[in-house]
Amino acid sequence: MSLTITPLSPALGAQIQGVDLSAELSAEHRNAIEQALLDHQVLFFREQPLNPQQQARFAAHFGDLHIHPIYPNVPETPQVLILDTAVTDVRDNAVWHTDVTFLPTPALGAVLSAKQLPAYGGDTLWASGIAAYEALSKPLKKLLDGLTATHDFTKSFPLERFGSTAEDLARWEQTRRNNPPLSHPVIRTHPVSGRKSLFVNEGFTTRINELTDIESEAILKLLFAHATRPELTIRWRWQENDVAFWDNRVTQHYAVDDYRPQRRVMHRATILGDRPF
Ligand SMILES: O=C(O)CCC(=O)C(=O)O
Ligand SMILES: [Fe+2]
After folding, report:
1. Which residues contact 15 (CB under 8 A, 6 or more apart)?
2. DSSP the chain
3. Domain span holding position 126
4. Beta-carbon neighbour count of residue 277 at 10 Å?
5. Are the C-beta atoms of 264 and 118 separated by less than 8 Å?
6. Candidates 112, 243, 259: which one to mutate for ligand 1, based on the most atoms within 8 Å of Cβ?
7. 167 pLDDT exceeds 90?
8. What is the model's pTM?
9. 276 in a domain, yes or no?
10. How far apart are CA 174 and CA 60, in angstroms?
11. Residue 251 belongs to some domain of the structure
């Protein structure tokens, strides 16, 4: 059976129908999903109840899976992390970010499954870095091509977020030692499609290395605002058992934090990526 791919907005996003993600994927479906991801950058599937093993198995069709250094995992399936507002403070996702760009090889993508949702609210937005790059003027593209930026995990995960016990402090110190600030190109080339994408994000990017402090601050502010203009985004209103699969190499996202004290539970499997160039 062939997939139905319905684009949802001009910048990015498509809904996929005609596949059961809990079953073993055929090579044909796997390849069609990969191509749709390249074309649309974030894919949405409705009514896909997945247990953690099924979710990990689906995600592993697209690469090896990452075990997150900070979030709690499903104990029997540590490749699946839990975002549960009753357990963890997940406010750090209510900022535009690309996942784990503080790593030398940030995630290729992630598969997110909605387990428990508030009655309303708790939407997630994605923005296309490709559309953001393409919407820049020629002179600005020329300036940014070849520049590098620093990414630092402490920008989104400051010590306060880790808690206050000696154990929390030790865990944060260890995570910081393991993840020193590093540099990535400001304009990234997609390793498969070859398309260029703006690759700075408010969550983790602290500085454009080749500019002065004041230039870096002003240009990053401009780029963060430019990259997240509504025209370059899509907003997904979740239903339980929805699955989103995004290409983390060329997108950023924002989890809207507007539903407390209601509980929201999501499971995520993260696919390892390669070094941006
Ligand atoms: O909870 C969400 O909708 C997204 C959270 C997030 O930023 C992520 O899973 O990477
Ligand atoms: Fe995220």
Report:
1. 5, 6, 8, 43, 44, 45, 46
2. ---EEEE-SSSS-EEEES--TTSPPPHHHHHHHHHHHHHHSEEEESS----HHHHHHHHGGGSPEE--SSS-EETTEEEEEEEETTTS--GGGSS-B-TTTTSSS--SEEEEEEEE--SS---EEEEEHHHHHHTS-HHHHHHHTT-EEEE-GGGTS-HHHH-SSHHHHHHHHHHHHHS--EEEESEEEPTTT--EEE---TTTEEEETTS-HHHHHHHHHHHHHHHT-GGGEEEE---TT-EEEEETTSEEEEE----TTS--EEEEEEE------
3. 4-271
4. 9
5. yes
6. 112
7. no
8. 0.96
9. no
10. 28
11. yes
pLDDT digit string (tens) for 99-116?
999 999 999 999 999 999
Structural domain includes residue 277? no
What are the pocket residues of ligand 1 if the criterion is a CB atom closer than 6 Å to any ligand atom? 83, 93, 99, 110, 112, 124, 253, 255, 266, 268
**Domains identified in the chain, total number:** 1
Distances (CA, A) of 20 to 47, 102, 207: 9, 34, 43
**54 lies in a domain?**
yes
* CATH (domain of 31): 3.60.130.10
The rounded distance, in Å, linking the Cα atoms of 106 and 276 is 8
Specify whether 97 is catalytic: yes
Q: Quick one: which of 58, 97, 98 has its CA closest to 80? A: 58
Which protein residue's CA is at the shortest distance from atom 7 of ligand 1?
93
CA distances from 119 to 1, 47, 241, 262 (A): 34, 17, 14, 8
Cα–ligand 1 centroid distance for 137 (angstroms): 31
**What are the tens digits of pLDDT across the range 35-92?**
999 999 999 999 999 999 999 999 999 999 998 767 889 999 999 999 999 987 767 7
- Do the beta carbons of residue 175 and residue 69 sit within 8 Å? yes
